[in-house]
Specification:
This protein has two domains: 3-131, Regulatory protein AraC (Jelly Rolls, Sandwich), CATH 2.60.120.280; 136-241, Homeodomain-like (Arc Repressor Mutant, subunit A). 43% of the residues lie in helices and 24% in strands. It has ten helices and eight strands. β3 (22-36) and β4 (39-43) form a beta hairpin. The longest helix has 18 residues, at 184-201. The two termini are 24 Å apart. The mean pLDDT is 89. This is HTH-type transcriptional regulator RipA.
Length: 247
Protein backbone atom coordinates (compact mmCIF):
# COMPACT_ATOMS: atom_id res chain seq x y z
CA UNK A 1 0.00 0.00 0.00
CA UNK A 2 1.32 3.44 -0.96
CA UNK A 3 0.30 6.67 0.73
CA UNK A 4 1.47 10.28 0.73
CA UNK A 5 0.70 13.57 2.40
CA UNK A 6 1.86 16.93 1.07
CA UNK A 7 0.91 20.60 1.31
CA UNK A 8 0.40 22.07 -2.16
CA UNK A 9 0.04 25.75 -3.19
CA UNK A 10 -3.08 27.24 -4.73
CA UNK A 11 -3.30 26.39 -8.43
CA UNK A 12 -0.90 23.43 -8.27
CA UNK A 13 -1.51 21.12 -11.24
CA UNK A 14 -0.56 17.52 -11.99
CA UNK A 15 -0.51 16.58 -15.68
CA UNK A 16 -2.51 13.61 -17.01
CA UNK A 17 -1.24 10.23 -15.82
CA UNK A 18 -2.49 6.74 -15.03
CA UNK A 19 -2.10 4.21 -12.22
CA UNK A 20 -2.10 0.43 -12.27
CA UNK A 21 -3.99 0.48 -8.96
CA UNK A 22 -6.88 2.55 -7.66
CA UNK A 23 -6.32 5.91 -6.02
CA UNK A 24 -8.14 7.95 -3.39
CA UNK A 25 -7.21 11.62 -3.04
CA UNK A 26 -8.52 13.59 -0.08
CA UNK A 27 -7.99 17.31 0.47
CA UNK A 28 -7.92 17.54 4.27
CA UNK A 29 -7.75 21.30 3.65
CA UNK A 30 -8.42 23.02 0.33
CA UNK A 31 -10.28 21.78 -2.74
CA UNK A 32 -9.34 19.25 -5.43
CA UNK A 33 -10.45 18.88 -9.05
CA UNK A 34 -9.83 15.64 -10.95
CA UNK A 35 -10.23 15.60 -14.75
CA UNK A 36 -10.55 12.59 -17.06
CA UNK A 37 -11.80 12.15 -20.63
CA UNK A 38 -15.27 11.78 -19.09
CA UNK A 39 -15.20 15.22 -17.50
CA UNK A 40 -14.19 16.87 -14.25
CA UNK A 41 -15.02 15.89 -10.66
CA UNK A 42 -14.56 18.42 -7.85
CA UNK A 43 -14.04 17.43 -4.22
CA UNK A 44 -14.65 20.36 -1.87
CA UNK A 45 -14.49 20.04 1.91
CA UNK A 46 -15.64 16.67 3.32
CA UNK A 47 -15.35 14.77 0.03
CA UNK A 48 -12.77 12.35 -1.42
CA UNK A 49 -12.09 11.53 -5.08
CA UNK A 50 -11.87 7.97 -6.38
CA UNK A 51 -10.05 7.06 -9.60
CA UNK A 52 -10.11 3.37 -10.66
CA UNK A 53 -7.05 1.73 -12.27
CA UNK A 54 -6.25 2.66 -15.85
CA UNK A 55 -8.12 6.00 -16.03
CA UNK A 56 -5.91 8.81 -17.36
CA UNK A 57 -6.49 11.76 -15.06
CA UNK A 58 -5.06 15.09 -13.94
CA UNK A 59 -5.45 17.05 -10.71
CA UNK A 60 -5.68 20.74 -9.85
CA UNK A 61 -5.68 22.09 -6.31
CA UNK A 62 -7.42 25.24 -5.07
CA UNK A 63 -6.31 27.08 -1.97
CA UNK A 64 -3.34 25.85 0.06
CA UNK A 65 -4.18 22.15 0.06
CA UNK A 66 -3.32 19.36 2.49
CA UNK A 67 -3.40 16.61 -0.15
CA UNK A 68 -3.69 13.01 1.09
CA UNK A 69 -3.14 10.24 -1.47
CA UNK A 70 -3.95 6.60 -0.80
CA UNK A 71 -3.40 3.70 -3.20
CA UNK A 72 -6.05 0.97 -3.30
CA UNK A 73 -4.73 -2.46 -4.40
CA UNK A 74 -6.36 -4.00 -7.44
CA UNK A 75 -7.91 -6.82 -5.42
CA UNK A 76 -9.95 -4.25 -3.45
CA UNK A 77 -10.89 -2.01 -6.40
CA UNK A 78 -13.73 -4.29 -7.43
CA UNK A 79 -15.56 -3.34 -4.24
CA UNK A 80 -15.88 0.25 -5.46
CA UNK A 81 -17.56 1.83 -8.48
CA UNK A 82 -15.90 1.29 -11.86
CA UNK A 83 -15.79 4.97 -12.81
CA UNK A 84 -14.18 8.08 -11.29
CA UNK A 85 -16.34 9.59 -8.59
CA UNK A 86 -16.53 11.66 -5.42
CA UNK A 87 -17.78 10.44 -2.05
CA UNK A 88 -18.79 12.17 1.16
CA UNK A 89 -16.28 11.79 4.00
CA UNK A 90 -17.74 10.71 7.33
CA UNK A 91 -15.90 11.36 10.60
CA UNK A 92 -14.72 7.74 10.68
CA UNK A 93 -13.56 7.83 7.05
CA UNK A 94 -11.70 11.10 7.60
CA UNK A 95 -9.79 9.78 10.61
CA UNK A 96 -8.92 6.57 8.76
CA UNK A 97 -7.63 8.51 5.74
CA UNK A 98 -5.55 10.81 7.95
CA UNK A 99 -4.13 7.85 9.85
CA UNK A 100 -3.19 5.93 6.70
CA UNK A 101 -1.56 8.95 5.05
CA UNK A 102 0.15 10.31 8.16
CA UNK A 103 3.52 9.45 9.63
CA UNK A 104 2.26 7.07 12.29
CA UNK A 105 4.14 3.77 11.95
CA UNK A 106 2.36 0.44 11.71
CA UNK A 107 2.56 -0.86 15.29
CA UNK A 108 0.97 -4.27 14.67
CA UNK A 109 1.53 -6.30 11.49
CA UNK A 110 -1.38 -5.90 9.10
CA UNK A 111 -2.89 -2.91 10.92
CA UNK A 112 -2.75 -0.63 7.87
CA UNK A 113 -4.38 -3.29 5.70
CA UNK A 114 -7.22 -3.69 8.19
CA UNK A 115 -7.71 0.09 8.33
CA UNK A 116 -7.76 0.25 4.53
CA UNK A 117 -10.52 -2.38 4.57
CA UNK A 118 -12.48 -0.04 6.85
CA UNK A 119 -12.00 2.77 4.30
CA UNK A 120 -13.34 0.57 1.50
CA UNK A 121 -16.28 -0.55 3.64
CA UNK A 122 -17.15 3.07 4.42
CA UNK A 123 -17.03 4.02 0.73
CA UNK A 124 -19.22 1.06 -0.22
CA UNK A 125 -21.88 2.32 2.20
CA UNK A 126 -21.58 5.98 1.13
CA UNK A 127 -23.63 7.43 -1.75
CA UNK A 128 -21.75 9.16 -4.51
CA UNK A 129 -21.75 12.94 -4.21
CA UNK A 130 -20.19 13.78 -7.54
CA UNK A 131 -19.88 17.41 -8.53
CA UNK A 132 -19.34 15.98 -12.00
CA UNK A 133 -19.02 18.17 -15.08
CA UNK A 134 -19.27 15.80 -18.07
CA UNK A 135 -17.69 16.45 -21.46
CA UNK A 136 -18.82 15.36 -24.93
CA UNK A 137 -16.98 14.02 -27.95
CA UNK A 138 -19.30 15.97 -30.30
CA UNK A 139 -17.30 18.79 -31.92
CA UNK A 140 -20.21 21.24 -31.85
CA UNK A 141 -20.83 20.70 -28.16
CA UNK A 142 -17.12 20.84 -27.36
CA UNK A 143 -16.93 24.23 -29.08
CA UNK A 144 -19.70 25.54 -26.84
CA UNK A 145 -18.31 24.05 -23.64
CA UNK A 146 -14.83 25.27 -24.57
CA UNK A 147 -16.09 28.86 -24.82
CA UNK A 148 -17.69 28.56 -21.41
CA UNK A 149 -14.63 26.93 -19.85
CA UNK A 150 -12.59 29.91 -21.07
CA UNK A 151 -15.08 32.37 -19.55
CA UNK A 152 -17.58 30.81 -17.10
CA UNK A 153 -19.19 34.21 -16.47
CA UNK A 154 -19.97 34.66 -20.16
CA UNK A 155 -23.68 35.64 -20.33
CA UNK A 156 -24.26 34.32 -23.87
CA UNK A 157 -27.45 32.40 -24.61
CA UNK A 158 -27.36 28.94 -26.12
CA UNK A 159 -28.50 30.42 -29.44
CA UNK A 160 -25.58 32.88 -29.40
CA UNK A 161 -23.11 30.12 -28.56
CA UNK A 162 -24.63 28.00 -31.29
CA UNK A 163 -23.69 30.55 -33.93
CA UNK A 164 -20.04 30.13 -32.94
CA UNK A 165 -20.41 26.35 -33.06
CA UNK A 166 -22.35 26.21 -36.30
CA UNK A 167 -25.35 24.53 -34.71
CA UNK A 168 -28.89 25.59 -33.87
CA UNK A 169 -30.13 26.17 -30.34
CA UNK A 170 -32.47 23.21 -30.71
CA UNK A 171 -29.66 20.89 -31.82
CA UNK A 172 -27.39 21.95 -28.98
CA UNK A 173 -30.17 21.62 -26.41
CA UNK A 174 -30.76 18.06 -27.60
CA UNK A 175 -27.05 17.28 -27.47
CA UNK A 176 -26.72 18.53 -23.90
CA UNK A 177 -29.43 16.10 -22.85
CA UNK A 178 -28.35 13.10 -24.93
CA UNK A 179 -24.57 13.50 -24.66
CA UNK A 180 -24.18 14.98 -21.18
CA UNK A 181 -27.38 13.98 -19.41
CA UNK A 182 -28.28 17.49 -18.31
CA UNK A 183 -29.65 20.74 -19.65
CA UNK A 184 -27.50 23.62 -20.86
CA UNK A 185 -28.49 25.59 -17.76
CA UNK A 186 -27.55 22.72 -15.43
CA UNK A 187 -24.20 22.24 -17.14
CA UNK A 188 -23.27 25.93 -17.01
CA UNK A 189 -24.38 26.18 -13.38
CA UNK A 190 -22.18 23.22 -12.45
CA UNK A 191 -19.25 24.77 -14.33
CA UNK A 192 -19.72 28.02 -12.44
CA UNK A 193 -19.96 26.17 -9.11
CA UNK A 194 -16.64 24.46 -9.91
CA UNK A 195 -14.99 27.84 -10.41
CA UNK A 196 -16.76 29.30 -7.39
CA UNK A 197 -15.34 26.55 -5.16
CA UNK A 198 -11.85 27.48 -6.30
CA UNK A 199 -12.40 31.18 -5.58
CA UNK A 200 -13.99 30.57 -2.18
CA UNK A 201 -11.22 28.16 -1.17
CA UNK A 202 -8.64 30.79 -2.06
CA UNK A 203 -10.33 33.35 0.19
CA UNK A 204 -12.46 35.39 -2.24
CA UNK A 205 -15.61 36.87 -0.69
CA UNK A 206 -19.03 35.43 -1.48
CA UNK A 207 -20.10 38.61 -3.28
CA UNK A 208 -16.95 38.84 -5.40
CA UNK A 209 -17.18 35.13 -6.22
CA UNK A 210 -20.77 35.55 -7.38
CA UNK A 211 -19.80 38.38 -9.71
CA UNK A 212 -16.67 36.61 -11.00
CA UNK A 213 -18.63 33.46 -11.88
CA UNK A 214 -21.52 35.09 -13.69
CA UNK A 215 -24.32 35.49 -11.16
CA UNK A 216 -26.19 38.79 -11.24
CA UNK A 217 -26.47 38.97 -7.45
CA UNK A 218 -25.17 37.11 -4.37
CA UNK A 219 -28.61 35.73 -3.45
CA UNK A 220 -29.01 33.76 -6.68
CA UNK A 221 -25.44 32.48 -6.30
CA UNK A 222 -26.09 31.35 -2.71
CA UNK A 223 -29.24 29.49 -3.79
CA UNK A 224 -27.45 27.74 -6.67
CA UNK A 225 -24.42 26.87 -4.54
CA UNK A 226 -26.58 25.42 -1.78
CA UNK A 227 -28.60 23.30 -4.22
CA UNK A 228 -25.44 21.78 -5.73
CA UNK A 229 -22.99 21.58 -2.81
CA UNK A 230 -25.47 21.14 0.03
CA UNK A 231 -24.38 24.15 2.10
CA UNK A 232 -24.12 27.90 1.63
CA UNK A 233 -20.90 29.54 0.40
CA UNK A 234 -20.49 31.19 3.80
CA UNK A 235 -20.75 27.92 5.72
CA UNK A 236 -18.39 26.28 3.24
CA UNK A 237 -15.75 28.95 3.93
CA UNK A 238 -16.37 28.67 7.66
CA UNK A 239 -15.69 24.93 7.46
CA UNK A 240 -12.43 25.65 5.66
CA UNK A 241 -11.33 28.03 8.41
CA UNK A 242 -12.08 25.50 11.14
CA UNK A 243 -10.68 22.48 9.32
CA UNK A 244 -8.70 20.30 11.75
CA UNK A 245 -6.14 19.39 9.06
CA UNK A 246 -2.74 18.62 10.46
CA UNK A 247 -0.02 21.33 10.14
Amino acid sequence: MTSAARWLPHGHHLDPHTHDQGQLVYAAAGTLATTTERGTWVAPAHRVTWTPPGFAHSHRFYGRTDARVLTVPVDLCGELVEHPSVFAVSSLLREALLALTGERPEVRPGAHGRLLAVVVDELCDTPEQSLHLPESSDDRLRTVTGLLHADPARPATLAELGRAAGASERTLSRLFHTELGMSFHQWRTTLRIHHALGHLTNGMSVTDTAMACGWSNPSSFIDAFHSVVGQTPGSYQADLRTSPALP
